[in-house]
Amino acid sequence: MVPALAATGIVIVALLGELLLPRIEETVTRFRARRRCLPAEDGLELDPGRDRRAEARARLLLKSCVNDEEWEMYRDLGFIRVWSMATGRPSVKATDDAPYAYLIYPHKPILAFAPQTGRLLSEHCVEFPDDTRPYGSDRLPDSDDVLAKWMALTGDEQRLLDEANMHLPGRQIDPRQVKRDLWRLRQWERARARVGAPLRDGRAVPS
Amino acid sequence: MRPGHGEVLIAEGDVEVRAEEELLIAEFSRQLDSGMWAAVPTTDARSGRREAQMARSFDEVPRDAERVIFFPRASGGQ
Predict the structure, then answer these.
(1) pTM across the whole model
(2) A50 to chain B nearest CA, in Å?
(3) For residue B30, what are the CA distances in angstroms to A33, A38, B27?
(4) Which residue on chain B is closest to A47 by alpha carbon?
(5) Dist. CA B44–CA B47, nearest whole Å
(6) Helix intervals (H) in chain A
(7) pLDDT by residue (tens digit) across A23-65?
(8) pLDDT tens column, A60-88
(9) Strand pairing partners for A60?
(10) Are B6 and A57 in contact (CB under 8 A)?
């Protein structure tokens, strides 16, 4: 009886070992990898909060530069719509006369669309790389990237478009996502109009 | 605007003070020479709408501008 139980126990332990040993080894490896001290790149101290602080500063700067409506749009929806000024400054009801508008997403192409129909026109791929990599990266914080696009578009639209690589819509940004975002934007504008938020020129929306 | 840092104050001064204006001009040129673009946040006097004005030289910066923002020049992305 005892030898039989002992043999069964040994078999069970052997089988469990086969099953559990790889997992135990993997867990130990992961644990060691997490504890390993990586040397800082280019002599820079690794600071996990740096990017978050940079983004916080960038958001403040963005808020101080763009219109209130645009800031709230970015805060609530994650993108900014900018009207094209290719045919002159659009009026207050810009959707009636602006031939197209742009959606600015952080670190994604600028998307051109027809505001009257919602048709997507093109993606303008543009980056603002800092080759000096002053803090180990050449990538601006998200809100700085949005602000750079906003300034370049409102300041010199044609120059920015000349620098960008133009592609058909759908290359990087999913058209279904854009359609959803345009729908969200319309809903957001309606909700904003209901509470009498100021229009683009500072006037209140008539209720 | 710098990667990994956000906004960095480069220089400040009063353009009505000759020495400070020269400092600002020198820094403006240095930034443009290093490949940055310069933009001045402005507000349209008629509509009150905010926008940006790109400046390719210090002369294009309005005398009453509160700040000039430098950011890496645009290049075509993937």
Answers:
(1) 0.77
(2) 7
(3) 44, 35, 5
(4) B4
(5) 6
(6) 2-35, 50-65, 68-77, 142-163, 175-194
(7) 888 888 777 777 665 555 555 566 778 888 889 999 999 999 9
(8) 999 999 999 999 999 999 999 999 887 66
(9) none
(10) yes
